[in-house]
Amino acid sequence: MKLHTLLSYLHALVKYEGDNPDITSIENDNRKVKDGSLFVCIQGYTVDGHEFAKSAVDNGASAILAERPLDLPVPVIVVRDTKRAMAVLADAFYGHPTQKLRLIGITGTNGKTTTSHLLEKIFGDQQQTTGLIGTMYTKIADQTYETKNTTPDSVTLQQAFHQMIEANVDTAIMEVSSHALELGRVHGCDYDIAVFTNLTQDHLDFHKTMEHYKQAKSLLFSQLGNTYIENRPKYAVLNADDEAAGDFIKATAATVVTYGIDKPADVVAKDIHISAKGTAFTLVFANEERRVQLQLMGKFSVYNVLAAISAALCAGVDLDASIQSIEEVKGVSGRFELVSAGQAFPVIVDYAHTPDSLENVLKTVQEFAEKKIFVVVGCGGDRDKTKRPLMAKIACQFATLPIFTSDNPRSENPSQILRDMEAGVAGQLYKVIEDRREAIAYAVSQAEAGDVIVIAGKGHETYQLIGDQVLHFDDREEAKKAILNK
Ligand SMILES: CC(=O)N[C@H]1[C@@H](OP(=O)(O)OP(=O)(O)OC[C@H]2O[C@@H](n3ccc(=O)[nH]c3=O)[C@H](O)[C@@H]2O)O[C@H](CO)[C@@H](O)[C@@H]1O[C@H](C)C(=O)N[C@@H](C)C(=O)N[C@H](CCC(=O)O)C(=O)O
Ligand SMILES: Nc1ncnc2c1ncn2[C@@H]1O[C@H](COP(=O)(O)OP(=O)(O)OP(=O)(O)O)[C@@H](O)[C@H]1O
Ligand SMILES: N[C@H](CCC[C@H](N)C(=O)O)C(=O)O
Ligand SMILES: [Mg+2]
Fold this sequence. Notes:
Keywords: ATP-binding, Cell cycle, Cell division, Cell shape, Cell wall biogenesis/degradation, Cytoplasm, Ligase, Magnesium, Nucleotide-binding, Peptidoglycan synthesis. The chain has 16 helices and 23 strands. It has helices at 3-8, 53-58, 82-93, 112-125, 154-166, 178-182, 204-207, 210-222, 245-251, 299-314, 319-327, 355-366, 387-398, 414-422, 436-446, 475-484, and strands at residues 25-27, 37-40, 63-66, 76-78, 102-107, 130-133, 138-140, 143-145, 171-175, 193-196, 235-239, 255-260, 267-275, 278-285, 288-294, 337-339, 347-350, 373-377, 401-404, 431-432, 452-456, 463-466, 469-472. The strands form four sheets. An eleven-stranded mixed sheet has the order 8-7-6-9-5-10-11-12-13-14-15, with helices on both faces. The longest helix has 16 residues, at 299-314. The structure holds ligand UAG, adenosine-5'-triphosphate, 2,6-diaminopimelic acid and magnesium ion. Residues 28-31, 42, 44-47, 49, 52, 135, 148-151, 153, 177, 179-180 line the site of ligand UAG.
């Protein structure tokens, strides 16, 4: 696409009449620049992208989008906010891909990855080609690609959507993180259905207050569109049991569909029965009732299922078809995943890394544990510090023996993170084993028939981030090794 054509999408914001090279790609990382790229300089949290503009030109960039004039031998277009402009340009460059498929966005503190996989299963069973963008990967039809962020930057995102169009994807399902909403990574995404799971504490390092965190989440609903286009209705699917839903209803002009267990809602679950084998409940929708038998565990899973079924109903999927699809789901990788190597007690690897998710998982385990509950848990470095004492407290409240350990200390001192956790549980019974491998081995060595071990926080992750190192580490592998060595 020619530079002038591309810039025309910035409308009145930019008047540029200089050279008009062909733009072959848009990049915001100089290391990815190719011949003909437009390099966008972003002022980041750690470095200033403007500093890489010269290197981008050396790598072949034929134009630069910047927030200040730069002395370079290629056109430099100056705009007030490059991040915003980048989203507009990315959407245009890739041919407005999200206007050509059904797009479902899921936001909330917990349950996004799980709900997105439930929806992937439902739409896949409808013979649709699906796309998925989230914490674990980006998946386009049957191809899986690694991702760095739960919600990637606007260029990576629009490129993925473009690839989805080429792969004839009918429905794309994506996790929308609060960071992405706050940083405008999803500007230009034309959502059809926006889903809210829940709002509890996390990421206060970034958002500072729960009110700001909620405001960031509300953007998904306020950005849903303010028009009523007959062949493209928009839906906000909201958890009626979560207080924040009221604010999101106010924020959106879209049709609101609610789900819940405790409060009145359009789609309701009642008579929930949790056992070691799974979870059963009665789904009530439009005066009809269905008994649903899940292989997934816990009340929190019922919420995810209600969210997925409600979104599928908005997309016109038959209720019974959705239920059948969901009943077949055995689980999502690293979410309440059972590790079995012939031991006499269940070992569960789970991605709980917030106070609320940890509490939910441990409460669910309490429903079937006959004797002791061990929980191996840590808190991430360079992340919300205020959740550390809270997670420790919850571990002590709901487990018999909490073992505090490391979970991606990143640039922080692991011992300090553990001290921050311990500050929440002075005088209570717990053990500290900084090395995660040893912590898992210890729990396994102590457990007996009737006990349950929960290894929380890393789920599907296959690494431990220590300083700048990315070390291979997989809770499931470590648990298996420990069981076999017992
Ligand atoms: C706080 C935050 O969100 N940071 C994101 C942000 O990084 P940043 O602002 O620090 O960027 P930077 O490193 O300063 O670089 C500035 C610019 O210079 C460019 N650059 C940089 C270095 C270089 O050598 N060359 C170069 O061109 C960069 O590409 C960038 O355009 O922009 C980067 C590129 O888009 C993101 O990868 C990065 O996410 C980091 C890795 C991160 O940890 N983010 C977390 C907090 C996050 O976003 N998490 C949510 C999920 C939360 C959840 O699931 O609940 C997510 O959506 O992943
Ligand atoms: N609806 C829910 N409510 C509360 N906790 C949940 C819910 N669903 C899942 N969890 C818990 O949260 C953990 C993470 O779930 P999931 O990966 O689906 O959430 P996520 O929102 O994608 O998280 P992330 O923000 O890290 O990507 C699960 O392992 C489980 O412990
Ligand atoms: N999306 C979350 C994942 C946390 C996973 C946990 N293992 C950690 O590293 O804190 C985050 O980046 O905060
Ligand atoms: Mg996720």
